Amino acid sequence: MKITIAVAIVLAFMQVQLLVATAAVSPDPGLACNSCCQGPAGIPGIPGSNGNHGQGLVGPRGDAGSPGEVGQPGVKGDKGSDGLVGEPGGEGDRGQKGEQGVGQPGKQGPKGLPGMIGLKGERGEPGPAGQTGEAGECCTRRSAFTAVRNAAFSPPSDWDPLPFEELLFSEEGTDFNLKNGTFTCNVPGVYVLMFSVLKPSHGSYLWVQLRKNGNTIVSGGLRDADYHQLSSSAVIPLIYGDQVHLAVRGPVYTDSDHYTSFTGFLLMKITLAVAIVLAFMQVQFLVATAAVSPDSGMTCNSCCQGPAGIPGIPGSNGNHGQGLVGPRGDDGSPGEVGQPGVKGDKGSDGLVGEPGAKGEHGLKGEQGVGQPGKQGLQGLPGMNGLKGERGEPGPAGQTGEAGECSTRRSAFNAVRNTAFNAPSDYDPLPFEELLFSEEGTDFNLNNGTFTCNVPGVYVLMFSVLKSSSESYLFVKLMKNGNTIVKGRVNDAGYHQVSSSAVIPLHYEDQVHLAVHGYVYSSSNHYTSFTGFLLYEI
């Protein structure tokens, strides 16, 4: 059986009492006793029955016993209440960079600077013609006409208007009354007017006047038997409502070959300076009389000088081509990486503890879902685009506004005031006065030469009177030494030689009149040379 702590204490006390009693009966150690020497121990006797419990004094407390064996673990106690908040731990090492977040695309950056202008594309095919624009100085709208007679005419009285029977040409909008032969201006400007009227063989005279608002501008006349052509021309300003017509005195001949005609066309927009100058240019020309055979067919195969040709109407300007627009520049660079994801909710407070040791590096976090990135930086200007392919012809343009021509003009009107006898055949015909010369026009009076400094198509006209002291006169219009047109007369008395031409002139081309025979003139300017730019080229 097991000994309890109380029994162990009692037994220990009894051992102490036994030791004391033994010491009290021991013999004196100094006495020699050979008889009473202690023998061997006897066999222990049978233990006696327990005696009555003695009551002794309580002994001193014994030494502490050795620790007992570790007991079995106790039952887990209930969870204690939350402890106080511990001090913050030290900052851990920075974790590894997470993978790039999948943020929403950033806002589109501002538009990049325009790219460099691409190479000029090839000229496209001309588009279809646009509608006709309003009347302008350079627009295709012109005021022009050519009126003719198909039958002879005898005026009931002197200086009656000469009626016409047919318009060979009339620009749309031109106001010409055939019954009284009157042109009414509705496009103000400077006009060129020319007429050619044939005198029949049965009349002894014919006088023709070009009149503006009832006033004579230029006249032509002759007194002679047989057929004779009477021609003249003028350059005059007309304003809205002005009227011009031919007035005649004497019989007029013509037939289906149109020996009698009246022509006019708009030259340029009128200005105040031009109007003042042209007011002094109403010079009369006695024109073209030549003896012809009086046969009924009016056929002349020898020396008759026909009427001046009609200048052509300038063509319209071509449309301007348009180059192609270059391609759009490249897009800007992508936006920056999105911001880290949202931080999680805060956990509950832990137990109070000492600051923990610095933890190890955490594991790499999962890929976050970032917010949309900030707006990207403006992209660099795009590279020059490649040269585009040739474009398709454009659609027809809208009706253009009234154009305005350049004020740049070239025109002259040179005259002689005295007679001239050429020293040799076909010498240049010099002139003595310029009745009109547009600023910048190069005309040399000494040799009668016009030098072109504004390239274009020119109208050139001359009228030269043969002296009665000579039986012939030949006149050539020369360009750079080559004959363009020629006129002649072989007859006694005074006769007019006239002609005209429409020719292109380039820079520094030269034109002049060359004569063979005796030329007559006076202060009435029977001999003249006129030219003007019709349109530039």
How is this fold's topology laid out?
Layout: H1 5-25, E1 144-148, E2 160-161, E3 166-170, E4 175-177, E5 182-184, E6 189-199, E7 205-212, E8 215-223, E9 228-238, E10 243-249, E11 261-268, H2 272-278, E12 411-415, E13 420-421, E14 427-428, E15 433-437, E16 442-444, E17 449-451, E18 456-466, E19 472-479, E20 482-490, E21 495-505, E22 510-520, E23 528-536
Antiparallel strand pairs: 1-3, 1-11, 2-10, 4-5, 5-10, 6-9, 6-11, 7-8, 7-10, 12-15, 12-23, 13-22, 14-22, 16-17, 17-22, 18-21, 18-22, 18-23, 19-20, 19-22
How would you describe this protein?
25% of the residues are buried. The strands form three sheets. Strands 12, 13, 14, 15, 16, 17, 18, 19, 20, 21, 22 and 23 form a twelve-stranded antiparallel sheet that branches. Strands 2, 4, 5, 7, 8 and 10 form a six-stranded antiparallel sheet that branches. Strands 3-1-11-6-9 form a five-stranded antiparallel sheet. Among the domains are: 141-293, Jelly Rolls; 408-537, Jelly Rolls. By secondary structure, it is mainly β. Strand 4 and strand 5 form a beta hairpin. The protein is 5% helix and 28% strand.
Outline of this structure?
The chain has 537 residues and is mainly beta. The chain has helices at 5-25, 272-278, and strands at 144-148, 160-161, 166-170, 175-177, 182-184, 189-199, 205-212, 215-223, 228-238, 243-249, 261-268, 411-415, 420-421, 427-428, 433-437, 442-444, 449-451, 456-466, 472-479, 482-490, 495-505, 510-520, 528-536.
Features:
537 residues; mainly beta; single chain; twelve-stranded antiparallel β-sheet; 5% helix; Jelly Rolls; rod-shaped; six-stranded antiparallel β-sheet; 2 helices
